[in-house]
Amino acid sequence: MNDAAAPLRRRKRPPRRPRLTGQSFNKMLPNLMTLVGLCVGLSAIRMAMDGHFGGAVIAIAVSGIIDGLDGRLARLLRATSRFGAEFDSLADFLCFGVAPALVLYLWSLNDWGAIGFLPSLMFASAMALRLARFNAAIDNAPPAAFAYNFFTGVPAPAGAGLALFPLLVGLEADKAHLIWLRAFAGFPGFVGAVLVGVALLCVSTLPVWSFKNFKIPTANVLPLLLGVVIFAAILLADPYAAGALLGLAYIAMLPFSRMSYQRLAREAETRRHADEAVEA
Fold this sequence. Notes:
single chain, mainly alpha, two-stranded antiparallel sheet
């Protein structure tokens, strides 16, 4: 019996199938979202070239939503990488630097020819400088703890939204048949001034709330929720007017953001001096 079973024991097992190697899909998902946002930003330029400026605005807004989600998804899945950060910055430059500049040039500034292209050129260049400064800050020493709640200068998606303010007003004026408002919003001088002003805000050292760890007092939670509901209703009923109002609200927020930063900086300096006095 043992002799009959011996060949079975000596029979070799079939070789195991080799394991698949490569990157997990979960790790690739944030970069895939960034790629989708990049394609949407490119589509905004194509829509503007075809004269569909409303669609171009919506495409840039969708790119902004994707940009706000891919980074958070990367941190949630622990898929952050240097490649992802660089890819995200390149996508931001196209979606929020090149696309708004070209859309506004095709909508209004081309009436002034080469002179009209200068504000678009300045805006795109400023956005590139702003993103390069952001990437360089990653390798620098970490700032004070309170500084993590602030951007240095207006961030790229918000800058794109502010730059599109004249176009939003012009689209709303077309809907309401307000010829005088459409003429003012589409005047190349006004559009160029907005582009240059937003470009300066993007490359400035102005501290701007990032809202990443923004804490809301308990008493203000209900009013905030009601405000969000009202804004959502306006957004669904009239997206161009809602976008323009949101841009005005963002500009009005900037002085309060600067005052908040200065207050926190003074408090941090006071605590530092107190700690040095105790150690002495």
